[in-house]
Write a structure and sequence with these properties.
The protein is an alpha+beta fold and 807 residues long. It contains 17 helices and 49 strands. A 6-stranded antiparallel sheet has the order 2-1-3-9-6-7. Helix 6 (387-402) runs parallel beside helix 9 and helix 15 (562-586) runs parallel beside helix 16 (619-627). It is globular. The termini are far apart.
């Protein structure tokens, strides 16, 4: 019996910030904030400066209550109440009888309520104590180190609900995943499945885990045309195995088909009656991490089915701070946007949640690799009770839940906690107390080994491959590259060659459309309080402007004009991330991964995201799409001088003709060389550009261009960006309306940098175009919503680096 949807009531208990006693209708899954918004008690805290007005919600106790009718049940049957997600400190009552207490948002709960229910009408109540107050109480006067508003390290809840440098502080309470009653007789089991695959890829095994109650019974397992039955004579944990010879293996994007099989597990009684049936989608793949020492330090390369993979992707955070609002369609849209940007990897970051099945299923189907953090981030975590038992139960539950997914290939103990211990001054505050290292080195890897033996475990990110080595070593292990954004110009991404860049990022505001929706109107100045309310990094607004130095003329003037500021900071993010990604890819196989911080947003923000909370790609998304393309041409500094680097991330040789040109911004081509090339499969070819192209006559007015068919062109300036003499924009464009899209034809009379075409309610198929004198391009605009009116010429705007021209 599903107990989701309407029919619930939300009641306040205690102080409500002057709002009196509150009782409103509620929807499950949901949370106090979403129910209060629906009832008009609070305004949307994502809009304007409303976040401040909603702080009392997190400090209030709440109760969810509903009735349900239960028919007379068969004699001897049992009734279980199953709650897939409670946020977070809860007492569960059935007909006034307390049947359980919870303090962990990250695990599922099952309670036997046989003796509490009755035929006819029953009442279910879930009373939530304030998580914010629970965190403060647990931390006391001598807290372990943590960041942001509340000591989330004392409670197993979503860390980022207590604030982060890209999200609001909105601690909430609620039944955030499904709740149901299950009535059963004879036997039942919690079922989890995983697969293993021999290194030679010839034999796969489906491993079924059963936690059995009742019995005796029989288990029937069906997978890939194989069926086996197993007698179950006792209760408790059982493990069953079915071999699958020569399975079609599951491959990541770009390497082959992400083949999956249906697996069915049934429990049968002595007469053959089906007591329980579960269905799973599984894939067979072999995963390993190569950490072989070499002349540069130690490799950190993911191998899938015996092949090394360059991990192209991004970090994933919750796509909405009110996580119950996520839907399968929204997960699929975001993951499709990642795939459209040529990504093959997403890292689920450790300060959010273990995502819904829909997220992992979408990654399975698309061949997207998942690096899964355990939910520990940027804090020291006590290893004593009561937290230790919660962590153990959580790890056991979540690994068993996700082990079936072939996409989940890496498990990571925590985000930046080893780094924090070494570099952030934690030692003096921790003293002789535990701080979480035992979780990362012992408890968590044991859960992975027990329930997901085909996956890889990483102690932390960042981390070195050997104990005793500082976790942030460029030549060893996954590395986080934050000095660049926090302190330096983005050219400094080239200062080091990481083995695997697991985090790096550059801020920019959400798109104009999303900010306008959030603020009502875009303010004239970027330091407007409503806009700054959506900038959560301390010093972030200063960094946005400071990082324009050397990239755009007159950063101080840009900082006073929202239109110019929005365009300049958006372009800066795009070029910063393109610089980093192309640098990383140009050093394959020495560098084996490039994961941008971050793909998405929890709310409409000024943040490091590629896709804003409205689901709209920022200009950086288009830059990253090109930088992650299977065929990449990039211009890079090398010992031999400026060089064209061609990256082939396919299984076929890449052949073609490379044109290297020197082009004047108004006069056109000055010099050209051409030559044929062959780049073998999955390799990199480096070609010096040569003096004919690099010896500029008018350095501030000339560009180096490298191009070949089937790849985005690469453009290099001889001087710092703010020194390039871009001519005043001279451009013509026209709009051609089709049935369901519009074509914008653009012709440049002079060189134009970073051309972006926009229209209200439209999304462009391309952006950041560099058009040379006399060149034309066509941009396709499609409506964001079906049936939207297509734009005419008066509704289309062109933005470009040349003087911030607006059409």
């Amino acid at each position: 019996m599903e107990l989701t949807g309407e029919g619930w009531t939300l009641r306040s208990s205690g102080d409500t910030g002057g709002n009196g006693d509150i009782e409103v209708s509620a929807v499950v899954p949901g949370c106090a904030h979403t129910d209060l918004m629906r009832a008009g008690v609070i305004p949307d805290p994502f809009l304007g400066t409303n976040e401040a007005e909603a702080q009392w919600v997190g400090l209030t106790d709440w109760e969810y209550n509903r009735e349900f009718d239960l028919a007379a049940r068969p004699e001897g049957s049992r009734v279980h109440l199953v709650l897939d997600g409670l946020q977070t400190v809860a007492t569960v009552l059935v007909n006034g009888i307390e049947i359980g207490n919870t303090r962990n948002m990250h695990r599922r709960y099952r309670f036997d309520v046989t003796d509490a229910v009755r035929p006819g009408t029953n009442e279910l109540a879930v009373r939530f104590a304030s998580s914010a107050q629970a965190m403060l109480d647990a931390a006391g006067d001598d807290p372990l180190p943590y960041d942001w508003t509340y000591p989330y390290n004392e409670l197993r809840t979503m860390a980022c609900e207590g604030g982060w440098d890209w999200g609001p502080t909105l601690v909430t309470a609620g039944i955030w995943r499904d709740v149901r009653l299950e009535v059963w007789d004879t036997a039942r089991a919690d079922v989890d499945v995983t697969t293993t695959l021999d290194e030679d890829l010839r034999c796969g095994t489906l491993v079924v885990g059963l936690d059995v109650e009742g019995g005796p019974c029989e288990a029937e397992v069906v997978v890939a045309g194989h069926m086996e039955r197993f007698p179950i004579s006792s209760t408790g944990r059982q493990k069953l195995s079915v071999d699958v010879p020569s399975p079609d293996v599951w491959w990541p994007r770009g390497y082959g088909a992400p083949t999956q099989y249906d697996a069915t597990v049934r429990l049968l009684d002595a007469t053959g009656r089906t007591l329980q049936e579960t269905h799973h989608r599984v894939g067979f793949r072999h995963i390993a991490i190569d950490t072989t020492p070499d002349e540069h330090g130690r490799a950190f390369t993911l191998w899938v089915n015996g092949r090394p993979v360059f991990c192209k992707g991004a970090n994933w955070i919750p796509d909405d701070l009110f996580v119950s609002r996520m839907t399968p369609a929204r997960y699929e849209e975001r993951i499709d946007q990642a795939c459209a940007a040529n990504m093959n990897t997403l890292r689920v970051w450790g300060g959010g949640i273990y995502e819904d099945e829909a997220f992992y299923a979408a990654c399975d189907e698309r061949g997207v690799l998942v690096w899964q953090d355990f939910m520990f981030a940027c804090a020291a975590y006590p290893e004593e009770e009561p937290l230790r038992s919660e962590v153990a139960a959580e790890a056991d539950d979540v690994v068993r839940r996700l082990a079936a997914h072939p996409s989940v290939v890496v498990w990571n103990g925590a985000n930046e906690n080893l780094l924090g211990h070494e570099d952030w001054g934690w030692r003096a505050q921790i003293r002789d107390r535990t701080w979480g290292e035992g979780y990362y080195r012992e408890l968590l890897p044991a859960a992975v080994e027990a329930h997901a033996p085909g996956a890889v475990y990483v102690v932390n990110s960042p981390v070195a491959s050997e104990p005793g080595v500082h976790p942030q070593v460029p030549g060893d292990g996954p590395t986080h590259l934050w000095d660049t954004w926090n302190l330096l110009d983005y050219a400094h991404y080239r200062d080091q060659i990481p083995r695997f860049a697991a985090e790096f990022g550059w801020q920019a505001p959400a798109t104009r459309a999303t900010l306008t929706e959030a603020l009502g109107t875009l303010p004239d100045r970027p330091d407007d309080p409503a806009l700054l309310a959506h900038q959560k990094q301390p010093g972030g607004e200063r960094n946005l402007v400071d990082r324009l130095k050397g990239r755009f003329p007159d950063p101080a003037g840009i900082a006073t004009d929202t239109d110019r500021w929005h365009l300049a900071t958006s372009l800066n993010q795009a070029h910063a991330l393109r610089t980093a990604v192309e640098h990383h890819r140009s050093w394959w196989p020495r560098t084996a991964g490039s994961l941008i911080w971050q793909l998405n947003d929890v709310w409409p923000a000024l943040s490091w995201s590629l896709i804003d909370h409205g689901g709209r790609p920022k200009p950086a998304w288009y830059a990253v799409r090109g930088a992650f393309a299977d065929h990449l041409v990039t211009l890079q500094p090398r010992e031999a001088g400026l060089s064209a680097v061609l990256v082939n991330d396919t299984d076929e040789p890449w052949t073609g003709e490379l044109a290297l040109r020197r082009v004047h911004v108004t006069d056109g081509e000055v010099a050209r060389t051409e030559g044929e090339f062959i780049v073998p499969a999955r390799t990199v070819l480096t070609l010096p550009v040569g003096p004919r192209i690099t010896q500029a006559g008018r350095r501030r007015e000339e560009l180096v261009v490298a191009e070949t068919e089937g790849a985005d062109r690469a453009v290099h300036a001889f001087v710092r960006d703010d020194g390039v003499r871009w001519p005043a924009p001279d451009v013509k464009y026209s709009v051609e309306r089709k049935e369901d899209h519009a074509l914008v034809h653009v012709t440049a009379e002079v060189a134009l940098g970073d051309v972006i075409v926009e229209a209200p309610g439209m999304r462009a198929d391309t952006a950041l175009l560099t058009l040379l004198p006399g060149e034309s391009a066509t941009v396709v605009l499609r409506p964001e919503r079906e049936g939207a009116r297509l734009p005419g010429e008066d509704a289309v705007s062109l933005h470009t680096r040349n003087g911030f021209f607006h059409g």
